[in-house]
Amino acid sequence: NHIMITNSNNSSQSSLLSRIIFRGVQPTDIPRCHQIESASYPEDEAASKSMLQYRQHHAAPFFRCAFLVGENGNPATTSSTSSISYQGRSMNPAATLCGTIIGFVCSTRCKDFTAEAMKTHDATGTILAIHSVVVEKKYRNSGVASAMLQDYVSAMERLNNEGKLKVKMEKFVLMAKKTLLAFYVRNGFMAMRVSPVVHGNEPWFELERRFASSDKNDAETHECFIVDSFADVEKQGSGNPAAVVVLNGPPGVEQSTSGSDSDESLDNIDECENDQEKVQERGVQWMSTVAKEFNLSETSFVWPIPHHKTTLNNGCLRPQQMCPVYAIRYYTRSGVEVDLCGHATLAAAFCMLHPKKMEDPKQNYEIAFLAKNDDLQAELLVPSAISQSAMPMPAHHNKASRIAMNFPWKNVTPLSPGKECQEEVLQMLACAFPGAAVSGKAKRFHFRKDQTKSFFAQHVLHIGRTDGNEDLLVELTEEGFDSLQGLKIEYGALKAWQGYSRGVIVCCCTSTMDSDSMEHPIPASIDFRSRFFGPKMGINEDPVTGSAHCSLAPYFGNKLGKTALVGRQESERGGLVECILKPKEGRVCIVGTAVMTVSGKLSISVF
After folding, report:
1. CA geometry: angle at 131 spanning 86 and 199, to 5°?
2. If you placed Cys at 431, which of 174, 240, 493, 518 could pair as Cys (CB 3.0 to 4.6 Å)?
3. Which residues are paired to 369 by β-bridges?
4. Which of 106-115, 205-214, 310-319 tops mean pLDDT?
């Protein structure tokens, strides 16, 4: 795997390019190709003549060259004035026989991007591995490489669409040194990682570019779903709906396919990094736009990370397993990115793991997500894997699955009594929940804020903040918690306080009294109740917030002396969240049921 290109603009570029024909390499062309190859690379990197012969014989459609026609297309040995059209160009027929190969691109197909897999050609491989992109030295710095590579990509796209291949190709891959990264990025490739392959002292980088035709329907569409997370399968419209968009790679990359008129190589990577930043910025803008279109509390975007698998070493309910790895990002309905979202992770895991056949031995039961600041793991639960589960497995549902997610443990640090900020919290609660101090129909009428503040001072049991001051957690007595039901909430008051960055969690332990005496009985399996308010993130009240249980579960687990708890979030939709604490690992296993409600195609193009 080796690439040799060194190009820049010059005044004769247009004249030179106008005399080049791009065509397939024939067996008789191999000596000339080997001559260019040998002159362009160190001996230990250059392909041998026999290797080039192998590639031409077994992978001829994927071996193309740049053929420079004789001067002006009129060789001295002919006086013919007739002309033919070749690839859209008018040309003297005799002239097409006079000229020389000045560069070539050769590839083979494989199923894995590894040095071993690339040694031979596999006609059923979905990966097209480019071995050489090379231009003869005296024709470099003239735009030949870009023109040759663009022609090659176009020819491969046509081949992929003709229907003659038994298996379609999905992506191009290649390896290049640092000085050529910018060239390939400008020509539509994405730098993925440093290659483990060692050739000399300089590192090599792996790059890829997806075929526009790799999507069976439309290259501009993506699979999308709406999933109710932490739902009750017996109750429609429960849980927290989240949208999931499944991508082939980082957003913005597939659309970065335009070439460059210049083939300048770089002595540093600055320009490549600038191109990458533009791609990332475009992807961020697109994800924000899509999230606004779905208009749900959260939309998650997932895409595979090539050549990356991890061991599920902190599994919730199953032993260690190797599992695929996906990147995941989260955006709110207002287009704001957040670092972590439990119910959107549950929805994404459901879309990646939900089985078509539960008995399929090849079914993946584990998946890992790399979020912005956290490594997350999820498992599809089956009856044999739920011995530790605190709740019974629901009846099988063809559009529902039970998912366990391994999330980071988040501590709650208390605000000390008497501190000024604690008084500010009580004042914020009094302004946000007017009427909490009165009951029944009286909540509709005027009240005194000092009366409400006094009520909260009486019923607040604990005020704390989660790690990094992300969330404010307020524990109330159960009476105080119930008093908030039916109130008109002033979300602006919650948003105004600057002591937290994400949301406000209001919670309580469940009652130990006889449930028959309660107006709304609480099941015995419920350990705590909660509500989550996130006006700073564009979510006034979240239906069910899985990530909030990263702190709720450790908090109530310590208070109740339990390692397995069940919480009920009491929004209008409501939902159940099962939590299993793993203090030694510093993790919280969050379990919930996901139900698919919508599936389809997203056709919003990247800008």
Report:
1. 150
2. 493
3. 326, 376
4. 106-115
3-state secondary structure of 196: coil
CA 22 from chain centre, in angstroms, equals 37
User: Can you read off the two tokens belonging to residue 407?
Assistant: 């999330």
Altogether, the residues listed in the chain come to a count of 607
Burial annotation 518-551 (CB, 10 A radius, 16+ → b, else e): eeeebeeeebbbbbbbbbbbbbebbbbbbbbbbb
Q: Are 239 and 543 in contact (CB under 8 A)?
A: yes
Tokens of 132: 């050489």
Instruction: Return phi, psi of residue 402, to 5°.
Output: -100, 125
Phi-psi region of 267 (alpha: psi -120 to 50; beta: other; left: phi over 0): alpha
Report d(CA 295, CA 317) in Å as an integer: 34
Kindly report the CA angle at 40 between 188 and 20, in degrees rounded to 5?
60
Phi, psi at residue 503, to the nearest 5°? -150, 175
What pLDDT shows up at residue 78? 35
Rounded CA gap, 428 and 287, in Å?
Answer: 33
Mean per-residue pLDDT over the chain, rounded: 81
DSSP 606: P
Confirm if 346 and 243 have CB atoms less than 8 A apart.
Answer: no
Inter-CA distances, 485 with 531, 534, 556, Å: 10, 17, 22
Tokens matching residue 605: 């193009």
Among 291, 339, 393, 305, smallest CA distance to 604 is for 291
Report pLDDT digits (tens) over 234-244: 778 889 999 99
What residue type is assigned to position 513 of the chain?
Answer: M
Q: What is the pLDDT of residue 482?
A: 93
Q: Helix H segments across 143-180?
A: 144-161
Q: Is 252 left (phi over 0), alpha (psi -120 to 50) or beta?
A: left
pTM score, two decimals?
0.57
What are the residues facing 24 on neighbouring strands? 64
Other Cβ atoms within 10 Å of 398 Cβ, number:
9
Burial string for 491-515 (b: 16+ CB within 10 Å, else e) reads bebbbebeebbbbbbbbbbbbeeee
Give tens-digit pLDDT for 302-355.
998 875 555 555 556 555 566 788 999 999 999 999 988 889 999 999 999 876
